[in-house]
Hints:
This protein has 140 residues and is mainly beta. It has 1 helix and 7 strands. The protein has one domain (5-121): CATH 2.40.50.140. The protein has one helix at 58-66; strands at 5-11, 16-19, 25-38, 44-56, 72-79, 89-92, 98-111. It has a 5-stranded mixed β-barrel with strand order 1-3-4-7-5.
Amino acid sequence: xxxxxxxxxxxxxxxxxxxxxxxxxxxxxxxxxxxxxxxxxxxxxxxxxxxxxxxxxxxxxxxxxxxxxxxxxxxxxxxxxxxxxxxxxxxxxxxxxxxxxxxxxxxxxxxxxxxxxxxxxxxxxxxxxxxxxxxxxxxx
Length: 140
């Protein structure tokens, strides 16, 4: 059996890198995704879902070095369920309200938007790639 999840969202805070006992780096990031829609009452609803993402190895070092709060990222990985419940990790916040987070182990992290920018994605959502061709070079 196999499953994968793809998340496109913005970092809620700067990544945090730690080292496992065997010396391998692991970086954790909190990523927010949003979904906007019009409810049955005609009001605009803005729904935010948070994911806690763990990245390992050289990719963890790159994420820690280059990503900052607000930066857009695309993450491919797998959901890691809470062993006790089989679902998202559930806890009680300091104010007494319940909270939940979806834990993801990343296999790939792609940086979107501009480095050092405001975190907003560039046109099309992916970082620009330099191009030396002009429209005259296109064969059709």
